[in-house]
Prior knowledge:
The chain contains 15 helices and 30 strands. By secondary structure, it is an alpha+beta fold. The chain has three domains: 6-219, Fumarylacetoacetase-like, C-terminal domain (Fumarylacetoacetate hydrolase, domain 2); 289-466, Glucose Oxidase, domain 1 (3-Layer(bba) Sandwich); 468-513. Strands 18, 19, 20, 21, 22, 24, 26, 29 and 30 form a nine-stranded mixed beta sheet that branches. A six-stranded mixed beta sheet has the order 2-1-13-6-7-10, with no helix packed on it. Strands 4, 11, 12, 15, 16 and 17 form a six-stranded mixed beta sheet that branches. α6 (236-243) packs across α7 (246-252) and α12 runs parallel beside α13 (407-413).
Amino acid sequence: MTTTDPRFAVLGARPGKIVAVHLSYTSRADQRGRRPAAPSYFFKPSSSLAPSGAAIERPSGTELLAFEGEIALIIGEPARWVTPDAAWNHVASLTAANDFGLYDLRANDKGSNVRSKGGDGYTPLGPALIDARSVDPHALRLRTWVNGDLVQDDSTAGLLFPLAQIVADLSQHFTLETGDVILTGTPAGSSVVVPGDVVEVQVDAGSQSTGRLRTPVTQGAHSFDAAVGSLPAVDDTQRLEAWGSAEAAAAAVTKTGDVTGTGQNPTDRPVLDASPVLVTDAETPALPPELRAKLERVPVAGLSAQLRKRGLNDVTIDGVHALTPGSRFVGTARTLRFLPHREDLFAARGGGYNAQKRAFDAVDAGEVIVIEARGETGSGTLGDILALRARARGAAAIVTDGGVRDAEAVAAVGIPVFTAGPHPAVLGRRHVPWETDVAVGCGGTTVEPGDILVGDGDGVIVIPPHLAEEVADAALAQEAEDAWIARQVASGHPVDGLFPLNAQWRARYEAERNA
């Protein structure tokens, strides 16, 4: 039955299913650093189909919409348990396809790609079909252009798994029905596009061509609702895979100017719209106001004693001190990791909108930026501009086991900063900004995103969230007891039997407390 729905016009009818291959081209597999032994697949909804010329929207609040030029196979005769030798006979036609994906949702999907690749308009097909019976499936050419620039150019000779093998393999697991679509994977060159870009994909078989499948990218008005489902979230891994390489990710989102003290000013790189996206784990619990209020009343020394009673001794961030005496803070960890400086890695990841800048742009109110600098104090890990950004975002504090540049100006910003000390050198002297929102080692202890940190004149301590309420209550009780003991000592009583309380003094304390 033919259809008038423009989404399915090139096929003539709505397909029963769309099956997509994860990795199939040698060039793409080598780019990803893994070569699968056999093909693997995922499904896309038929509602994701779109004709040539239809726009695709990048949802509000996201940044990593990536294209993947592909060859789409359309099944003719149903196929079930067919051999590779016979499989191509079940393919009626082929056309150009674009397997768009929103990497902001990729981690949330945990491999299913339901949300990251199932959106409306995420599977453009067309504009014309090529009869499969008239072509050599080993000699098809695939090309993709972005804004007229050729970015993908490969052929099916570069497939890890021949097209007929993919059809045969799928037929082992379920019936491929007439009209079903198979997306056969993308070669190297897939990358991120932004509103205003135009992506075109074309498949050629000798003198035959599908023509160019054209998809303009627009900015969507709708954003995702945390009350309904998980929010978009990106990290360095998703950025690297979406852009295709660390170099592309660093270069493509570069902002003009050096705001971090890195010594970089890469004005010759392209400047794209790469507004910061909040990097967060939607499952990380916020610090409840009641618990925050309790922790604000307890000194770090008291918390340390309670954690020690529970077997936790390695929870202090050693070697850091308040840049401004008297500083105190409570907050949840937002982490940033630096690796030791290496010239080639710094060139790829040190400039532009790097991990350091993203961390300070993404920190939320009440969070603490925790920086792993390996105790290396021979350069700054932040300066006054980033301290101003953290304060503007409402951050609770900054903790770094490295140095601070522009120390007097940073102190004047007013945000609590705990550091191993000041140093005038820029970041790039010792460090490469590497990644955000991962477990880090700061001052000799491990800090995970969402851990609770408290800092005062005695230092900084890390509290596992599941123990925080218990530890806070116990520390407050101990503080009350210690205050009572201090009053007894101040009035002239000896400490023997009083500190700690023996049975006699304990009974007196309890009686006065309950009076």
